[in-house]
Write a structure and sequence with these properties.
The protein contains eight helices and six strands. By secondary structure, it is an alpha/beta fold.
Length: about 250
């Protein structure tokens, strides 16, 4: 079996949806759901390591989430800062590399510093890579990549006809990271919500009604089991894939 048809996805991307509804079901403020969501992140990281997943990408805060009530956004920023303080040293000790995807310039100066220090601390680690998308949007990612290429064209560094999919890939925030094999969205919604739009072109999609704070190893294994049964053809026929396996 080829690596691209491996039964275990090497890169899993997750939209962690349902924190607010989880809290509402328990008659708690939405913030309590987000705190419970952080605990779920700790679990999923551990479970991905156990299953030999190489990259885990998590959608934590979209560029559209600024439209939420000011108090909730403020609490989310505070929670993000606390999570970095509490988790990064632990991640480093477990050989985990942390990368933040998104436009961090919109965050406070202190949070930007925390992000840079966290990435710097873990940048040479060789275990699971955890990408946290914060103030991220898939359209923004493609736009900033195109702007970077346009700048190179204007300077004469690049010709328009030399722009390829690879050159666009190299300017995305995920440059150097292979594309997701499996996309999971919790909470019952069935859309990708502007997450990794370019990168998800050939990703297998899995949707579950489980709310993110309740997402556990059984849910993860269900998603991986679904993934393992799918035939990833990448435009080829089943017969062509079978021929590759027999070769």
């Amino acid at each position: 079996m080829t690596e691209e048809n491996s039964p275990v996805p090497k890169h899993i991307a997750i939209i962690m949806d349902g924190n607010g509804r989880w809290a509402k079901q328990r008659h708690q403020p939405r913030f309590m759901g987000h705190r419970a969501g952080v605990k779920a992140v700790e679990r999923i990281i551990k479970q991905c390591i156990e299953r030999n997943v190489s990259v885990l990408s998590l959608f934590a805060f979209s560029s559209e989430n600024w439209k939420r009530p000011t108090k909730e956004v403020s609490l989310l920023m505070e929670l993000f800062s606390i999570a970095l303080k509490q988790q990064v040293k632990r991640m480093h000790s477990n050989n985990i590399r942390l990368k933040i995807l998104g436009d961090i310039s919109k965050f406070s100066t202190s949070l930007q510093t925390q992000i840079r220090e966290s990435e710097l601390l873990t940048e040479n680690n060789t275990g699971l890579q955890v990408n946290v998308a914060a103030n991220y949007g898939g359209r923004w990612d493609v736009t900033q990549a195109v702007q970077a290429l346009a700048t190179k064209v204007c300077s004469g560094e690049l010709k328009p006809e030399d722009i390829t999919e690879d050159s666009i890939n190299n300017e995305l925030t995920t440059s150097g990271i292979f594309e997701p094999d499996l996309f999971i969205r919790t909470g019952g919604e069935q859309r990708v919500s502007n997450f990794l739009l370019w990168q998800l072109a050939y990703t297998e999609l899995f949707f579950t009604d489980t709310l993110w704070p309740d997402f556990d190893s059984e849910d993860l294994d269900d998603a991986i089991a679904s993934f393992s049964k799918r035939e990833r053809r990448y435009g080829k026929t089943s017969e062509q894939l079978q021929g590759q396996e027999d070769a």
